[in-house]
Amino acid sequence: MIHRVVGVVLAGAALLSGCAASSSSQTQPDSLSDTSWTLVAFSQAAGNAEVRPARSDQYRLSFQADGRLVAQVDCNRGSGTWQAAPAGSGSSLHLGPMAVTRMMCSPDPLGQRLPQDMEAVQSYRIVNGKLQLQLVGNAGSYIWARAQP
Q1: Parallel, antiparallel, or unpaired: how do β-strands 90-95 and 99-100 relate?
Q2: What is the pLDDT of residues 43-92, one digit of tens each?
Q3: CA dihedral 62, 39, 147, 123 (to 10 degrees)
Q4: How far is CA 138 from CA 37, 73, 123, 142, in A?
Q5: How do strand 35-43 and strand 141-146 relate by DSSP bridges?
């Protein structure tokens, strides 16, 4: 009798874990969880030329599985939170307030802009292996490439 109860409990646990795995994959089809990205460019919606960082390896976003966002912005470091959910053709993305160090970095057109824009991100898409973070009001988008481990 004990063996039968243990077998039923184990089977139930396996079934529930399978349901949990399938429901999490449905909520984030192109999940950002446990991914890191380096900045390629900022593209303004008005059709102006792209703005590229002086050194793309100095700009990195890491989306942690626990909802933390870790960032390198030029010579500064930052951290905040992230939460994504499906929304039409793209997925809605909310980036919480980001705490960023304020070291004096070499001049770079994106060094000051990027931290200010993080809270204005409204959605993301992954197209041809590139992450696109779209700003609210079609103010532009940040384009990121998957970081090498």
Answers
A1: unpaired
A2: 987 667 789 998 889 999 999 999 999 999 999 999 999 999 754 556 89
A3: 50
A4: 22, 23, 10, 11
A5: antiparallel
**Is the torsion defined by CA of 148, 36, 141, 57 positive or negative?**
negative
Percent of the chain whose pLDDT exceeds 90 = 42
pTM: 0.74
Q: Would you call 144 exposed, middle or buried from its count of C-beta atoms within 10 A (0-12, 13-18, 19+)?
A: buried
Residues 123 and 85: their CA atoms lie apart, in Å, by 9
pLDDT digits (tens, 9 = 90+) for 105-140: 888 878 888 888 988 999 999 989 999 999 998 889
